[in-house]
């Protein structure tokens, strides 16, 4: 597995890095902990050594014959700093090398992930924002901090993302680096840096009464995979989540919605000025004309008759708004969960939908209970990416992150200033 350097800086959230270390070790990685002197005031070296199974590397003078300030960074497959204080971000952005950790950051030629933690005022200060922008422009992944309880009674943005979220970001960074090695560096790790993307995920619900609704089997995992891969590739991500019970991806701005109308309003607002919009949510096509305010009771043997009406066509509405000049010029990607029938097979239905909707790309996958069914309630997916130019790309069954990377590759090629 990978060789990971875990940098820990002097914030009270340093204790959470112990859980991150445990998760990285359980995933099979070798982890070398490089704490700052301030970090050791919060968590002592014996704790890091017991959890990592390795000596802590704390200064440039110990074992000087091994030249640790160069060797550790060179040998790493990934460097993650959690928590990353405002001071560390500033020193990294300006290339300072006044301790072992900042030396490692300068010598590392692998993916680097920062998980910031600090008070809200520090995170929002123009100096910190400029330092984060500088690091991201260099291809470094800087997660946005979580929003919540800080030290004392304070609350706001600045809380360290949860260890499982940071571990997932590390996993994606390593997977992306491995893919780039296989493809001989065909794409830079942060090729979406500077882009703002909107992703929808999950399945909408149209309520019949307070306890019943029309819905679908979407878990939101494909939308989550699109968000996490975009974050790993450097994008700024707005994630519109329709009834998804998954931990939010670290760094994404999550907007929860319930119905198709809710999703339609949220997406239209967020799409203005976005570079790419990916509609991965399974949006209900119909809703009850009337929603009962009290639970519908059984009445004798007769079942109630429920009249339905069509919901908003969010994908077609986005394309129309773009054509009207209301959104700018985002690349628009749709998803189509299809089944074959007596009239046509899955791909024929998909091609017709692409022509009807007018989006730039449409990802078609077969759903249902048949042997070729993919997508819903699964960690894997497969499909065919249809493009307006008539090209079609088959994506073999595999992790949903693999399909997500194909989507971002194809969308990136359609952005005029990024193509090629």
Automatic annotation (TrEMBL):
Gene3D superfamilies: CoaB-like, Flavin prenyltransferase-like. Residues 1-196 are annotated as: Phosphopantothenoylcysteine decarboxylase. GO terms for molecular function: phosphopantothenate--cysteine ligase activity; phosphopantothenoylcysteine decarboxylase activity. Signal peptide: none annotated. The keyword Lyase applies. Residues 192-411 form the DNA/pantothenate metabolism flavoprotein C-terminal domain. Pathway: Cofactor biosynthesis; coenzyme A biosynthesis; CoA from (R)-pantothenate: step 2/5; Cofactor biosynthesis; coenzyme A biosynthesis; CoA from (R)-pantothenate: step 3/5. This is Coenzyme A biosynthesis bifunctional protein CoaBC. It comes from Motilibacter deserti.
């Amino acid at each position: 597995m990978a060789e990971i350097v875990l940098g820990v800086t002097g914030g009270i959230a340093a204790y959470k890095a112990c859980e991150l270390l445990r998760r990285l070790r359980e995933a099979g990685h070798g982890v070398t902990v490089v704490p700052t002197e301030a970090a050791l005031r919060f968590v002592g070296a014996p704790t890091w050594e017991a959890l990592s199974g390795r000596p802590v590397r704390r200064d440039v003078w110990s074992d000087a014959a091994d030249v640790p300030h160069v060797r550790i960074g060179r040998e790493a497959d990934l460097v993650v700093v959690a928590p990353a204080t405002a001071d560390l971000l500033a020193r990294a952005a300006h290339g300072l090398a006044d301790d072992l950790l900042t030396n490692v950051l300068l010598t590392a030629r692998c993916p680097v992930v920062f998980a910031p933690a600090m008070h809200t005022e520090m995170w929002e200060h123009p100096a910190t924002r400029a330092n984060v922008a500088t690091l991201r422009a260099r291809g470094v992944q800087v997660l946005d901090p979580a929003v919540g309880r800080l030290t004392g009674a304070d609350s706001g943005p600045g809380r360290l993302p949860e260890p499982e979220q940071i571990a997932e970001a590390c996993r994606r960074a390593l997977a992306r680096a491995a893919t780039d090695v296989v493809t001989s560096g065909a794409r830079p790790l942060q090729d979406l840096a500077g882009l703002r993307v909107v992703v929808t995920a999950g399945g909408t619900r149209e309520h019949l009464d307070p306890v019943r609704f029309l819905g679908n089997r979407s878990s939101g995992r494909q939308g989550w995979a699109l968000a996490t891969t975009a974050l790993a590739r450097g994008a700024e991500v707005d994630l519109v989540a329709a009834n998804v019970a998954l931990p939010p991806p670290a760094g994404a701005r999550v907007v929860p919605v319930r119905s198709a109308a809710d999703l339609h309003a949220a997406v239209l607002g967020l799409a203005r000025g976005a570079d790419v919009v990916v509609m991965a949510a399974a949006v209900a096509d119909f809703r009850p004309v009337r929603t009962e305010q009290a639970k519908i009771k059984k009445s004798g043997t007769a079942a109630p008759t429920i009249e339905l009406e069509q919901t908003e066509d969010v994908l077609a509405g986005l394309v129309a708004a773009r054509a009207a000049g209301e959104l700018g010029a985002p690349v628009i990607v749709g998803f189509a969960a299809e089944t074959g029938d007596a009239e046509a097979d899955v791909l024929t239905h998909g091609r017709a939908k692409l022509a009807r909707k007018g989006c730039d790309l449409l990802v078609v996958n077969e759903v249902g209970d048949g042997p070729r069914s993919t997508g819903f309630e699964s960690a894997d997916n497969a499909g065919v990416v249809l493009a307006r130019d008539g090209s079609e790309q088959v994506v073999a069954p595999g992790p949903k992150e693999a399909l997500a990377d194909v989507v971002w590759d194809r969308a990136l090629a359609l952005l005029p200033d990024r193509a090629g």
